[in-house]
Model the fold of this input.
Amino acid sequence: QVRLVESGGGLVQPGGSLTLSCAASGFTLDYYAIGWFRQAPGKEREGVSCISDSGDSIGYADSVKGRFTISINNAKNTVYLRMNNLKPEDTAVYYCALSFDYGCSINREEYDDWGQGTQVTVSS
Done:
């Protein structure tokens, strides 16, 4: 059974950092792309970052380029999202998702299975 579990969210001050984890079970990340998405209250879920099965294709939304870094640890079957210089507008529930048929993409329509999400709040 495919399962994705996010962790690492929390409350952080503007300019601070957090690292989110997406632990996968029931399948191996060696063969599928993973995306990170976020949804703020009253807003649509938006793509943040993605990484291909091989890890050689990576993408970021313009709003997070230069601040967020996605990485993968295949031995731990886990994908990470390192978030630096956080801003209040980064506040949202962050989700990771699995794509069976597509490569690295921040289009949520191309993802099949989702985790439950982890809350990130950036506030002073």
